[in-house]
Amino acid sequence: MSVDAWLPALIVLSSLLPGLLIFFLDEERHALRTALNLAGAVLKTGLVGWLIWGVFHDHAFESRMSLVPGLDLVLAADALSVLFVALSTVLWLVTTLYAIGYLEGSPHRSRFFGFFSLCVSATVGLALAGNLVTFLIFYELLTLATFPLVAHRGTPDAMRGAKVYLAYTVTGGAVLLFAVAWLSALAGPVEFTAGGALGDLAQTHPAELTAIFALLIAGLGVKAALVPLHGWLPQAMVAPAPVSALLHAVAVVKAGAFGIVRVVYDVYGVTLAADLGVLQPLALLAAFTVVYGSVRALAQDGLKKRLAYSTVSQVSYIALGTAIFGPVASIGGIVHLVHQGVMKITLFFCAGNLAETLGIHNVSEMRGCARRMPLTMVAFTVGALGMIGVPPVAGFVTKWYLGAGAVAAGADWVLVVLAMSSLLNAAYFLPILYAAWFREPVGPWPEEHPRGRFEAPLMLLVPALVTAVLSVAAGLLAAAPFSPLDWAKLIAEREYGL
Amino acid sequence: MPLLAELPLLPWTVTLPLGGAALSFVLRARAPAVGLAAGVATAAVGLLLALQVATAGLQRHAVGGWGAPLGIDLAADGLSALMVAMTSVVGLWVSLYAGAYFGAGNQDGEHQRAYFWPLWLLLWTALNALFLAADSFNAYVTLELLGLSAVALVALAATPAALGGAMRYLLVGLLGSLLYLLGVGLLYALAGTVDFRLLAAAPLAGPATAVALGVITAGLVLKTALFPFHFWLPPAHASAPAPVSAVLSALVVKASFYLLLRFWFWVLPEAATPVTLNLLGLLGALAVLWGGLRALTAERLKLLVAYSTVAQLGYLFLVFPLALGEADGFTAWGGMTLLLLAHATAKAGMFLSAGAILKGAAHDGVSGIDGAAQAMPVTTFAFALAGVSLIGLPPTGGFAGKWLLLNAALATGQWGWAAVLLAGSLLAAAYTVRVLTHAFTRLPGEPPACVVPGRLEWTAVALAVTALALGLAAGEVLELLRVGAPVVGPVLLEQAR
To answer: In this complex, how many residue pairs, one in chain A and one in chain B, have their CB atoms less than 8 Å apart?
Structure first.
């Protein structure tokens, strides 16, 4: 009983405390820093396992602390938060391994890993947030913790990217703050409740609620990179590879998408949102973003930039699935939280390996690189095929459910969007795969640093392979109990009261 | 705790720093040690006083046993206890910082080292006495003492810029206190008393009262540097030595603002009209925007921080339209108080860290701190954390205060003030990031070595962390604020449906 009230807080603290300790370590304490990092990550994974078991058996986990009367800090666990917590915890573990290998020998590692841990603590905090204010608090913390990571290299490029990132996210945060304050002034403290938390407010204040919904989505849409609020994401590409992985798969972009899911399902309730007529505009915006991101990705030669625009497109699948009224489409949207995460992180790990080992930063330099780094390119290929939606990789499952859900909800136009997007995905990924596997390398690699016996250091290679395997497993074993899809079905059942 | 309730803390909060000032002046060679000891003792008594008011309620002490209206009374309610506690916390860390800042060695340093302590403790005496003053004339005396010791502290830097700033500061301060005295005199002529409680009970009304309140407000607004009367603040605050800048920005401007609250909320609340309240709010809003813009374009680091003070003081004036004349004014009242306390700790932390960074910097321009994140990560962290509170991001005290003000504005339908709060946050974010981008910019070659003593770094961090902790302890602060509060209502409002 008493443990149930502590578990959510413990999960946040399990990365926060090691993170704070790491700040105080000397640069040279490599072993201790690594031990702290891994201890936190492993402990967190264990605690999350316990949480999953408990939530499945309908335990109520809630840690609550009053800031001022009427303003509580609540950490609680429901099925949706568990999905996101599990995703970020597992991916954090692999990303930590990757980052340790990636940053070997570079300066300011204590600062880096300190903020890295803070970043994950904020993500887990907002995943476990039990009310809108707590969500807002961790959402802003996430902004603060990622800024030094994007700025980490301190070069003029990095500083520009970090500045743009902060300008976007702080403005978005202010809009979100305003919307949350307005809603709280209208409805009192808003606790996340399956099926909606606003009660009969829709009858008395429909116009206000619609305006607040627009503001909430605008504030969250910045991190979720909805067009036209996506401008920061390609700029933030200057960050080191593990940070890009974090931004795109584990934390920042996901936080925005997760927030949209929360607002639609647990603040407004999907029925009320449909009644207010706010879902249709959101679906159109998301669909436009899906296509727009893919079109822009086509034209990018920078590998990480191309991946960034691909993220813009892929993350909007989540918003799209959320905005279509009907449990099947919801399952597609929610499960893509996980699927996009594992696939995109694989791609970024591989991009980082190529840059570190061969100095490849551009698509045009990738000819023949699969001969030099076959394992890396196998992982890359899995991620890319998944993005296109080729079975059995996870991306296929998402698209299947989104398409089926759209048809069930009578929104047939979504099928056209899905088809276009898949074609575009193929158009920007397949040439890369073809060039890498089937063409001859031209001349020497831009900047070759052979390291170790394998094609890349093991610390960089293994995480990419692990996430590639996870991407396939999530698709192949989608029907198994406790698969992401199975869990998304559980969430949809609870949200729609089935 | 029955023992705590019995302790005669009120007189000690004033006599301890006063004694310390005299002693550190006489024992000039030992001034730093004596001053620091007196500072620690004063801070302890001030914090105990806050605890005493929190547990035992209102406190009052008749100096010499005379009592009002003849003698001098000291009184503490929730607000004054919080102000004294704020002075204690900021004063303690600034004292620790100053001990390491005014280095021995060169002649200038020796001079500053010797004279800083008596002046600083005198200033502390004036602050405590002002916050605890039970009558308006006593408040005048402490206001003058405060102004004079502050001017002397600014002049301590002895640069042409500092002397110019100090002179302007002196003239403005004198004009402000004269106007204040004029108003107090008028009220004495009307009501025959200067005691705050008796004045509040007196049947004051009519044009003469309005004129008295007007002159008092004009004088105090000038001393609080409300837009457009802020012209004197940036040069004075930016050119003083770092610990002095911290004290001026964090505490001294709050003293005149505190008196403004005393008059408007306790003594003459019925004299307020919607027009005057909105005018004060509007000037505050303009201060937020103008101060933020000037901070964004300021050439020098300390000037940037000083303009940020102009902006942050503007927020406090939103309390007039949001709390006075509203049925449930406590939300805005609490928000204002939290912002005031958060600004005091965060801004002191920011000035202290700026001072530490500038000690090792090539020049005092904003770009002079390039590479600071490498050379002085701890200080850069303090600056950033203080900035986070000034922006109003969670979970800091600045966030708690802004949240309450925002809630009051939205629930009472006063949308304009809500927009000001948000615009101010964005400006604060912009100027904080402007500094941080320079701090994070990597200089070519080997990372520069840190040249300042560790104490300069850790004191700044302590203040910034206090601003953060304030957000987590907001509930306790608001409970103390309720003791003798002039407004009522719940902490958070819900819009009437």
So the answer is: 103
